[in-house]
Amino acid sequence: EEIGFLDETSKDERTLGRSAGRSLKGICAMKKQVFIHGHRLSALGLLTVDGMMAVSVIEGSFMTVKFKTFIEEDVVTTLMHPISSVLVMDNAKIHHGDGVADLIREAG
């Protein structure tokens, strides 16, 4: 039995454009520079008790087709016991894309 956590994140020129921030008490929150200018990078990863088992970084955003490809090529082949495994995802829109649930169900 395995448990895997799947999540994605994106970074672009708006990433650090926040109106509020966190810092230690008595120290002002500061932003020194923009992460990247003009490009959007997205990362998708599978974390298990053994560590980060699969990662995909792309330019742009993950859409349903790219997400399904990651499930097929990385997640299903990485989990050693797909029939008794549990895959935990948040409520992101791409997780509800056409065929995503069927793809995961077919794997086990």
UniProtKB/TrEMBL annotation:
Single GO molecular function: nucleic acid binding
Pfam families: DDE_3
Domain Tc1-like transposase DDE: 4-106
Gene3D superfamilies referenced in this protein's UniProt entry, alphabetically: Ribonuclease H-like superfamily/Ribonuclease H (3.30.420.10)
Organism lineage: Eukaryota, Fungi, Dikarya, Basidiomycota, Agaricomycotina
PANTHER family in alphabetical order: TRANSPOSASE (PTHR46564)
Protein name: Tc1-like transposase DDE domain-containing protein
